Automatic annotation (TrEMBL):
PANTHER family: SPORULATION PROTEIN YDCC. InterPro entries: LolA/LolB/LppX, Sporulation_related. Residues 76-109, 242-264 are annotated as: Disordered. It comes from Pseudonocardia zijingensis. The lineage of its organism: Bacteria, Bacillati, Actinomycetota, Actinomycetes, Pseudonocardiales. This is Sigma-E factor regulatory protein RseB domain-containing protein.
Length: 336
């Protein structure tokens, strides 16, 4: 699943859900247990969306419980991408710095952005990867439900029917339940996206993605514990542990991401077409050419991979088309 600092919001969440849904989300969180519905003043849905997009980022510390129902295998070193429940803890200074701690099979990954450098520590092989911030923006805020939900709102708002369906309590905080459903003209595998919005700070506390034809969420990401306020600056400094192997790295060419992709369409039925990862990115990663089933069209031949809410075509000529859309929409995007 992907990686982005909590203050770098605004890139299309339609692609985020789609690519992450098939290639593997690194963090998919489940909401806290249901509680009493708080009594809150009525709010206009459009005004609620505007307030979320205009809200200041808050320094915070939180715990996230993750539930993944996409039906995908776990990625190497990232068990959170496989089906099931996992946990994480996150911290952010509300600006450029963040920290995430992710348990793995027999250890922990620690991800830190100090504002200039991204650090990734894997306790299992005692390896530290050090990457300039401009080259690696995604890992430290992947656990932040607020960032993920705000991206979704910005991307899906223009092509959605928006409503507020009551209130809820998430991580002990009162929230409005905002619902975005695709307009009738949208061709998508998604039924709706639900966002629990903090009544005080207007920060998304929980994001739920529901696929067409299912009452069970395909993706949920939300806080189970949350505390707003200044964080210890030491949390955002990283010193490699004694004996750790340090690797200095630049993002390799050929790494597929939303930033390097061509968007076809907009809103719910956006398809992103990008180059498949080069050989330097394949080591330890699933071989996409062996997943899914054979498919062909005017664009050539390849394989179709599907999950609960998304589809991907990996072509034999080295392209990837991904979106929360049916096969026909992917094929049309490749044929353009």
């Amino acid at each position: 699943m992907a990686t982005a600092r909590s203050n770098r919001i605004g890139r299309s969440a339609a692609a985020g859900v789609a690519v992450a849904g098939v290639v593997g989300l690194s963090l998919l969180a489940a909401p806290a247990g249901a509680g009493a519905q708080p009594a809150l003043p009525p709010v206009d849905p459009e005004e609620l969306v505007r307030s979320v997009l205009a809200a200041d980022h808050q320094p915070l510390a939180g715990a996230v419980e993750m539930e993944n129902g996409l039906g995908l295998p776990a990625m190497p070193g990232m068990p959170q991408t496989g089906d099931g429940t996992s946990t994480a803890r996150i911290w952010t200074d509300g600006d450029r710095r963040g920290r995430v701690q992710l348990p793995t099979g027999s250890g922990e990954r620690t991800l830190v952005s100090d504002g200039e450098t991204f650090w990734s520590w894997n306790s299992e092989d005692r390896t530290v990867r050090r990457v300039p911030e401009d080259g690696h923006e995604r890992d430290t805020a992947n656990a932040d439900p607020g960032a993920a939900a705000a991206e979704a709102l910005a991307a899906l708002r223009p092509t959605s029917e928006i409503s507020v369906e009551g209130t809820s309590e998430v991580a002990g905080r009162a929230a409005y339940d905002l619902v975005l459903a695709p307009a009738s003209s949208e061709r998508t595998l998604l039924r709706e996206v639900r966002v629990a919005v903090d009544a005080e700070h207007r920060m998304p506390l929980r994001l739920t993605v529901l696929g067409t034809g299912s009452s069970d969420p395909a993706v949920e990401i939300g806080f189970t514990e949350l505390e707003f306020g200044p964080q210890d600056p030491e949390l955002f400094r990283f010193t490699p542990p004694p004996g750790a192997r340090i690797e200095d790295a630049q993002p390799p060419e050929g790494h597929p991401s939303k930033d390097d992709a061509t968007a076809v369409g907009e809103g719910w039925d956006t398809v992103y077409v990008m180059a498949a990862p080069g050989p330097e990115r394949r080591e330890g990663a699933p071989d996409l050419s062996q997943l899914g089933r054979p498919i062909s069209g005017p664009w050539g031949s390849g394989r179709l991979i599907t999950s609960a809410v998304a589809g991907v075509i990996v072509t034999d000529d080295g392209r990837i088309a991904a979106g929360a859309v049916p096969e026909q929409v992917l094929s049309e995007a490749l044929a353009r």
